[in-house]
Amino acid sequence: MVPARHLIAGSPPPSGPSLRATVIASAAAVGAVATGSLTMLLPGETTAPTAVADEAPALGSLSASTAAMLHNPTTHAVGTLAPVSLDGFTTADQHLTMLGKATDIAARIAEAHQREAEQARVDALVARGGVDSWIAQALQILDLPQNLAPGVKKIIMAESGGNPRAINLTDSNARRGTPSQGLMQTIPTTFRHYVAPELAHKPITDPVANITAGVRYMVENYGIDTLAAGGRSNAAGSYIGY
After folding, report:
1. Spatial separation of the C-alpha atoms in residues 1 and 6, rounded to whole Å
2. Which is more confident, 96 or 213?
3. Which of 50, 74, 135, 148 has a CA-to-CA distance to 205 between 20 and 30 Å?
4. Domain 129-240 in CATH 1.10.530
């Protein structure tokens, strides 16, 4: 018989275990750990369990089944825990893959636009004619970067002054009967050996053909860095013919 001191006047005696005991028992059944409070049940005691810590967490932080039990003590706990889904990680990986592909596509588009802009600039130079036009065409035929143009032009201006029909009649080559000719002042044998194959039918004084021969000779014998620097030079920085 429950001592009268534990009953509230006018209320019926409790018909089952207390609400807190039900919550604790249900939590233990599913392996839950109560972090908000620790309740101790003593043998032989029929009074409400004694809380040795602070009260249980607010309803908003409890699972749906536990909250339902608090509202209705007859509600039975569900004996399973919700599994952790990995769908979020898979989706994140898919997004990263798509982002990588998008970055690659953007880089290729930017590169294509850059090539188009460079080609438009070369086309404009070609249409204008003159030394810059001839250099641009020669580098394009040789599949060399257009940023070599300033170095090539420096060599041309030092060798021929930009005159495609210039002939040197005073140097050692001229005394041997093989004068240097054209924009880059190549001798006939050098021209025939180094001219771009697709321009081999052109004469030595053809400006574009002459440049291809001179550039190829320079790269093979002195390196592309010397070509980019505008030819050979002495200790004082003065140009030296090649």
Report:
1. 11
2. 213
3. 148
4. yes
